[in-house]
Amino acid sequence: MGKKIVVILSGGMDSTTLLYYALNLGNDVVALSFDYGQKHRKELEYARNTCIETSTPHKVVDLSILNDLAPSSLTRADQPVPEGHYAAENMKATVVPNRNMVMLSLAVSYAIGVGATEVWYGAHAGDHTIYPDCRPDFLEAMINAALLCDWHPITIAAPFLNLSKGDIAKIGKDLGLDYSKTWTCYNGREKPCGKCGACVERKEALTEAGFTEKEIKLMS
After folding, report:
1. Averaged pLDDT score across all residues of the chain
2. Is 158 within 8 Å of 120 (Cβ atoms)?
3. What's the CATH code, domain 4-219?
């Protein structure tokens, strides 16, 4: 019998794959998304649609205060989203300070409230260079905190922590995911820009996973 798990779902490739992965293992999954004033908040539409398609209970939390407290190029109109390779130094401008600690903390509260035993999020090895809150030592600290914060200990997990985005795309491919139903671009335009770090990484991952050029074009 599966576990009851809260999956933090952004609507992007990694978290959507994680949701399908958790469901495929037979778990009872509820999804939690956050609106923190991100330029690419249309990702939330993709998250909602995924949950409708999979009959997954879904809650969206207003976290706009994070935009006020923690400036980032992902949220501020006067800070353009950098273009180039996702591992480049300028991509640090996309860091939303302490975002994952805040989101994981709220997810733990939600997990306790709905009777879940675990919280999963989609951090992966490709995030380690730029995003401190996707690294193993951060996860370990959050795991320890979640076990101590309440009388109902919650386990925090990042099942893809040591995988590349390409590895995650391979898992998604095996599960039959249609990645055109996910949103990755950091710009909130009608179509993906193809130039920001997120778009570059997405294309590399889909290529590594063995999708054809035609399939990648349809998914970009």
Report:
1. 91
2. yes
3. 3.40.50.620
- The length of the chain in residues reads 220
pTM above 0.90, yes or no: yes
Phi and psi for 20 in degrees, rounded to 5? -65, -40
Residues 105-135 pLDDT 10s? 999 999 999 999 999 999 999 887 888 889 9
Give me 50's structure tokens.
């995924």
> Per-residue confidence at 1, pLDDT binned at 50, 70, 90?
low
Cα pseudo-dihedral 216, 209, 203, 123, rounded to 10:
130
Backbone angles phi, psi at 99, to 5 degrees: -60, -50
58-62/118-120 β-pairing: unpaired
| 181 closest CA partner among 53, 21, 80 | 53
What is the layout of strands, in order, in the sheet containing 58-62? 58-62, 28-35, 4-8, 118-120, 155-157
